[in-house]
Amino acid sequence: MLRRPKPTDSEADLLREQQELLAAGGQSTVTVVKRPDKRRGDAAAADADAHEQEKQRDVVTIEDLPDEIPTLTPAKKSRFKQERVRFEDEDAEERLDRHDTHISAVLSRIIERDTSAVPVSLPCITGTAFPKVLRRSVVENEGQEKAPRGRKSIFARQIAAQRSLNGSDTRDKSSASRHVGCSPLESMETERPESDVMDRVGGPLLLSGQGLGIANSAMETMKIHEENQARLQAMSKSEILEEQRKLLAQLDPRLVDFVRSRKAQRTPGSESSSSPAQRLPNSTSTELDHTIKAQESQRDTMEDDEEEDENRLVVQPPITEEELPIKPQKEWLHMDKVEPEKLEWTRDLPAPRMLSTKKAMQARFDFAGTLIPPNKDLPTHLGLHHHGEEPELAGYSLQELFLLSRSQLNQQRTLAVSTLANVLTKAHAGEYTSSLKGSVLSSLLDAGLLFLLRFSLDDGVEGVMSAAVHALRALLVSSDDEECLDNAFPWLLGMATFPLLPTAQEDEDVEDEGLDEALKETAKEKEEKKTDHDVARQDVVKGFLKMQGLPRLRYILEVVRPSPRVVLDILEILIRIARHSTAAAIQILDCPRLMDTVISEFLPCSWTPAASQAPSSLYGLPIALAMKLLRVLASAGRHACARILNSLGGKELLSRFVVVEPSEMLLEAGEALRCSTEVLRLFAVAAGYGQACSLYMDLYPVLVKRLQAGNRPCASSEAVLFLELDRIRALLVLLTQVTQTAGCHEELQRGLVNAQGTECPPPPPVLWSHVTGLQPTVISSLKGCVRALDGSSQMSSALILLPSYLLYVEAYYSQLCVQSSFQPVQCLQELESLTSDVLLPLISHQAMQNMTSSFRSNSVICNPGLSAPGGEVIPSLPGLSCSRLMNSSTIAGPNSPLPLPTALLYLLNTITSIHKGLIKKFSRLILSDSVLSYLQSCIGAMPSVSHMSSWILRHEHHLLYLLLRLAHKLVPVDSEVAKHASLFHQVSLALLSWLLPGGEYLAHELLSVVTFSHSLLPEGCCGEPEVAALAELQLKERTSPAVGALLRDALNHLPSIRGCYLTHLAHMEPSVLSSRDRYLGRTPFIRSHFLPELTGPSLPSDWPFLPLISLYERTGWSAGGGQLVESLPAGSVQSATHCLQWLLVLESWREQALTAVPPVAKLARLACVFLCSSDLFLERPVQELTWALFRRLTQPAQLEALDLGSAPPGLASFHDLYSALLVQYEAVSFGDPLFGCFMLLPLQRRYNVTMRLAVFGEHVGMLRSLGVSLQQLPVPLEKFTSPMEDSLPLLRLYFRALVTGALKRNWCPVLYVVAIAHLNAFIFSQDAVTEEVEAARRSLLRTTYYLTDEVLKNHILLFRLPQENSELGFSTYEQLPPIRARWLESIVGTEEKGGER
């Protein structure tokens, strides 16, 4: 066996072993493989292969390795093979054509250039036979010194330098050649007089003649220029100045600047060209030479700029060795020769300047997030110039900040993220709105800011992590919004808030179309399939949750244990996420160890006091924000609240923090008060579900002691005083919720006894007897607050506390009435005493008058601009945008005019429900001029619904509702209040369309009590129906009964009308019951303090049409249409009748109530009468009421506002509805005039021609039954006949219908007149038209002349004007006017003698 070679073997040993191997005949471990050379021919490759095989020398490959080259190694391909790459779908014929090199293929692509306008000039005479060869050594110095500024190649710089060196001789010689006469145009330029600068330049500056489109455009341009010069020479200097002034006044200033810049570029050269030396052939001028070089250099630097005057920059010479900030030493490697182009970056930056360009400039920010103006020169030591692009400008762009945030240097990452946080803060505040184009927040989010912050949270450096937390807080949290929500917490139902969910976006379910319901994906499955980017684009908070942001925040709190600022930022972020929705709050509670960490670290039951006012760590100390987080989480739902109280130890926290006084917490005074306030608010939220009431009994002595001390607040400063007042109000909210819960005990006890297998909440542990002792203390404190209004020092505190006291008193007496221990006589006496001692003095007090007088100025309903966003608004991240509201009004602050009047009216409505004898005593509040003025301003208002306005609009809706309820009670008993009954009714109708989700109970109460009340419709009692009937006599209608009788009948059926609407709103019953539990204080039945998602008002603006729409949806066109009246649901005729009656009342007396419904929507809703069945419109009451409403809709003002081009709400277009009406009319109309008027209304000339084409094209058969007379038509006939019809297809259809007999005067008189009028106007029109229209006009006139039907012929030819009172519907000529007769004669070749009338 042969041995393997060793490293120690010599060359002789290796040769000997090789001989032994060959002699033994063993197989080699390598094989010889020859690969053909692709760059040589096949024959040559074969010969070479045979030759090389003899030499046994070639490529060696090892057997154990694969023959193919590994995929990671780039394969070397033939250059020719790369050009022969083919694709599967490539056309072979196209490939052959592309590679065809035949002479015909070459010649077919030759395109001759147009040289007709190019002047021919002789070549310049030079002393050498060939151009001089450029050598780098020769022009190196010149190229460096005189090369123009800009990024240019070495060759271009050499060419420019050579032109600069030889420019003078070349220009002079070429000037001489031009003077000899090489070009006529140029010889004319030299011999022109020098009267003006334009003349001295040698030609027009702005005109080039390129747009003339003629061969000798240059000659024509010079002729125009010479004419202009001759006209200028003929004018005096004053005339020239006057014309110049007129031109400057008319032209755009930017155009004037452009012209002056062009003049300035050529003026220096023109001065030298006017010298005597310029006119000599062989003379030279250094001034001209310098001008030419400057012009050429300038043209080279203006390659991509449209405005030449902006880039005339000063060319800086190359940097020298003396200018270097650090002198190079000889011992430095490779620094023996200074290379200026590589050291340009060490030069001082040029001064920034504002470019007068139309292009938007990139925004740059400093480290504080402040926008830096482009022309502001800042020193470089501030660190704002460390970026590659535009190094002379200070500040960083958003792109550069994003790049820095992914740097490998920790400091750069921290600095970039911190700067982004400052930019976000200022963007939320609206500081960039007037300076930047577009939204900074939207741009950042679209660029992936949320992903950047999420990545930064995972950074291992604590500084970067802290900066990311701060930036995330700046993105999500608004301190002003939280402050406003905390201020509104003690208001009436202020505990309930809207979830901050983005507006729902409808996804296109294209994949689910045509599938069964069982096979369609659920919303949860679709949500899980979405990517993080898609989720974050629609909802920022949901996107952050999908990116597992909560576990990372938990890790930072639990493991990293950051600084106090980061801890507070994280708690604020969690609060904002909890406000997003109930689902988000549940995710926070479900996150492992997150809430355990928050409670154990930041809400300890015992702690060591901090050594300083600003502790270095918040761990182990109580934090008010942590308690607020628990409160917001508890507001998300009763189950979440129960988890906090039971699983997370919330009851122990309540007991621990409620008992201790703020002064005993060993915390800073403000933080201690905030902690005490938040724990009371958390207790109140739990009591709002009927939970934690057992703690109330345990802590009763402490709470009563706090209540008794509440009327004597004392504080060292104003800030501490406001915190103390917040704490007292939170205590009163807690006691109010406990009182309402105790009032439900007997009801739940009875329900538990009577429940037979149905679910019923258990009765709460607190009884009514447990809260009766609070009432005397609260009444005493209430009286003290009213007395304190007379003192200026305590007035502000009293006004803040009064609403909470009044709300508790209302809760007490509203629950007292339903208790078994209720004593009516004693209660009435207490109410009389309360009225005389507290309520009446409060109503008459000047402070109360001041509040009511500020209703209108602070109203968000009357002033929608107050709720406009102060900063940038992002649809995917909704907020309240309270910064502008807090700065422009007091309505959202602690001194708001809303809570006190609302609480007072809430109590007054409860008192007057118990003691009706006290109603008249409160009329002064309603009859106040400021209140009446405020109500009057609300009638025509149309507030917008959004997250920015809804939270405050909801509280203003409470105020309006309570005012209306009290006014409704006062109208029957007070004649002065009754005078304003119509005002109250109009406000109630407006409020119905404004109420937001969660206010369904208020809408139900308004409909049940106020809206359909006889007492608020005084028009029915003072002869208004008769006045309406007299007004109808002035109209031309003769087909329907008087409106007065219809109105009188409607007033008699108001209870039935109310029942009809309440029946059709029965689908809202679950929402009404949930809202009722919240408004009536039935705390054990409340499921969440989050209101329903904000999707718009509770009722649509067109709710008066609701019965008609419901009837149409159930039995109308969508179900096939054409149903018999017997098949309609029971009571359908009555429902339609009641709906039409109510609509007639509103249109007659409350026209403002329907201003939000456009006329086209009214017409579309009214059309449901015809579409919902085959003969519902034939019922007498339905037809009479529909006639009356149709006349209202066709009054001149309403008719002008009727725009059928816009799609009615809920429909794709009005044309679709009209098509359905056409089909229904042909099927079931029976020539009904009312239905016919509906069909004629859209055929007016000003509306789209498609509806007229549909009638005369697809549905021409309906013309036989469209027998509406001219007297029945409620629309003036001129609306149909003027202006002249310009649709040629429609005119041909008119003519065909008349000739074929489909349209006759006795069948369809209205459209007969319309067709005759338009055809007559068309055939005798003298307007200039296209050839096609002119040919059609002549053809129609010729065909009309040869008609055999003499009557129709005379009607078309002799038509004069529409005339409704005539028998024909129009007047005719005795004979054709001379102009028309001559026109007819020119067409038909005969003379028209006239026609019969």
Give a concise summary.
The protein is mainly α and 1397 residues long.
Q: Can you tell me about this structure?
A:
With about 1400 residues, the chain is an all-alpha fold. About 55% of the residues lie in helices and about 0% in strands. It has 67 helices and four strands. The strands form two sheets. A two-stranded antiparallel sheet has the order 1-2. A two-stranded antiparallel ribbon has the order 3-4. A hairpin with a 7-residue loop joins strand 3 (about 1360) and strand 4 (about 1370). Mean pLDDT is about 80; it is low at about 55-75, about 140-150, about 170-200, about 265-315, about 505-510, about 1035-1040, about 1115-1125 and about 1390-1395.
In terms of topology, how is this protein built?
Elements (H helix, E strand, L loop, with lengths): L10 H14 L5 E4 L8 H14 L3 E4 L16 H4 L9 H8 L3 H5 L28 H11 L7 H27 L3 H7 L6 H5 L15 H18 L2 H14 L2 H21 L2 H4 L6 H16 L96 H7 L5 H19 L11 H7 L2 H9 L4 H15 L2 H10 L34 H7 L2 H7 L1 H7 L2 H12 L3 H15 L3 H9 L3 H9 L21 H12 L2 H10 L2 H10 L9 H19 L5 H6 L1 H9 L9 H26 L1 H10 L19 H15 L6 H22 L7 H21 L1 H8 L1 H4 L23 H7 L10 H16 L8 H4 L2 H11 L7 H24 L4 H4 L2 H14 L5 H12 L12 H10 L9 H10 L1 H11 L4 H11 L26 H10 L16 H18 L9 H8 L1 H4 L8 H14 L2 H6 L12 H15 L4 H8 L8 H8 L21 H4 L6 H13 L8 H15 L7 H15 L4 H9 E4 L7 E3 L5 H11 L9
Antiparallel strand pairs: 1-2, 3-4
